Amino acid sequence: MSVLIPSDTQRRLSHLDWLEAEAIHILREVAGQCSNPVLLFSGGKDSVCLLRLAEKAFRPGRFPFPLMHIDTGHNYPEVIAFRDRRAQELGERLIVRRVEDSMQRGSVVLKSADESRNRHQAVTLLEAIAEFGFDACIGGARRDEEKARAKERIFSFRDEFGGWDPKNQRPELWNLYNARTHKGENIRVFPISNWTELDVWQYIARENLVLPSIYFAHQRAIVRRQGQLVPVTELTPAKENEQIEQLSVRFRTVGDIPCTAPVESHADTVDKIIAETATTTVTERGATRLDDQASEAAMEQRKKEGYF
């Protein structure tokens, strides 16, 4: 049964209220239609927003799904520590599956020891889906991130091989979603599809959400490489001809260390980040990805192979 919202109430709702209401509706649709869903939680800012939305959708009860992270083994330690702490605070079950385990099984084979493991998460994710029999995976992808993700439905159908075919997706008219699957098939669900990076930060400010420290400006050793800032770590050491600088930086998006770059910034509060985000002309992935994932063709191919 639909609920009519009085016109004066509609006028009082902000754009964040509408986005929040849509996302909560989507989460409840997943809980109502799917028998065994899971929420992907990496500790990043988008998945932190998803956790708050899940709290609003289902508290005071427990979430009707566990949390899961596919760990490459090359994540920033600050983010992993935050991931574990936040799941413990919520009292929700956290499943962690590691790319290194897939490497030991032989289902992931690296071309070289220093190859980014980011793209290989797809294999480990598909193995985890099969292990637990998940019929839906909820994630924080947004359409404004890059062109391949802009092609996604909110309920994105994946075949029995975990593959995504952008031409074989179900219509979503009048916010009606279809999560029906046959055995082995899967639905990927993106409740914040219609949010932008700026919306995410404004929601973080409104809800007073805590984030990993690397999202805020801090001093870090970096080198400049092909127009991007590369953090100096054991996984990404400086080359012989590169000069190491101590620079004030922050991360707009957080992923695998070998493929995630910071941006120069002095924004050390949420309000400052909001002001900075409102004036930027480069997408977060375009500015901070060191691998080929910023390429639409590369991302689309990975999604067809099972990548989130």
Characterization of this structure:
With 308 residues, this protein is an alpha/beta fold. It has two domains: 15-200 and 296-304, HUPs (Rossmann fold, 3-Layer(aba) Sandwich); 209-291, no CATH class. Helices cover 36% and strands 15% of the residues. The strands form two sheets. It has a six-stranded mixed sheet, sandwiched between helices. Helix 3 links the parallel strand 1 (37-40) and strand 2 (67-71). The radius of gyration is 19 Å and the shape is globular. The relative contact order is 0.15.
Helix content: 25-40%
- In round numbers, the mean pLDDT is 88
Q: What is the helix tally?
A: 11
Cα(first) to Cα(last) distance is 33 Å
What structural class do helix, strand and pairing data support? alpha/beta
- Residue ranges: pLDDT <50 for 5 or more in a row? none
Number of strands: 10
For the largest sheet, list the strands in their spatial order: 3-2-1-4-6-5
How many separate domains make up the residues?
A: 2
Q: Can you say what the CATH homologous superfamily of the largest domain is?
A: HUPs
| Envelope shape | globular
**SSE series:** HHEHEHEHHEHEEHEEEEHHH
Q: What is the CA-atom radius of gyration, in angstroms?
A: 19 Å
The CATH C-level name of the largest domain is Alpha Beta
